Amino acid sequence: MPEIVILRIGHRPLRDQRVTTHVGLAARALGARGMFLAADDSGVVRSIRDVVERWGGDFFIEDKIPWKRCIREWRESGGTVVHLTMYGERIQDREDELREAERILVVVGAEKVPGELYGLADYNIAVTGQPHSEISSLAVLLDHLFAATELDREFPGAHVRVIPSAMGKQTEER
Ligand code: SAM
Description:
Number of helices: 6
Radius of gyration: 16 Å
Order of helices and strands: EHEHEHEHEHEHEE
CATH superfamily: SPOUT methyltransferase, trefoil knot domain
Shape: globular
Strand order of the largest sheet: 3-2-1-5-4-6
Bound molecules: S-adenosylmethionine
Largest sheet: 6 strands, parallel
Distance between the termini: 31 Å
Number of strands: 8
Structural class: alpha/beta
CATH topology: Alpha/beta knot
């Protein structure tokens, strides 16, 4: 299974804060290693770090990341870059190959992404050719690449944990 890190580009502080936070939360819950944010937004960073502190694991988040340099350095160090876009190749045609990669940087946009991104990525991958969102496309990609094993993932060091139950809410605090 590859190690997966997200690069969130195009984030507009205030306007995209909630969606970007949810990109990070989905990435963490579904097995990614961390997220680079190509914007200056300490609010998003704080929210994600608060969740990690309380709910465990070692997911990282860093903001103020220059996105082109991030992509260049990732590729120079032998990593694979996947840009999620509805215009890309079908995920079902590339997932076996992507699962063989050691490290993947997954780039997701907000509104329109810069055209040059298509050429900078190793793969442009679509989760259907329909418009939806960075959260849903990322979730499906992670589930396909981890082949559902991420659903059994543990989050060491958690102060709170949900006890699954058919009815009501049960948690355990430590
Ligand atoms: N119209 C915008 C564009 O052309 O870049 C799409 C904006 S969409 C709200 C935000 C992000 O969601 C995109 O940059 C892409 O990463 C992701 N996304 C949306 N639909 C997708 C799809 N069908 N497959 C893969 N990624 C998708």
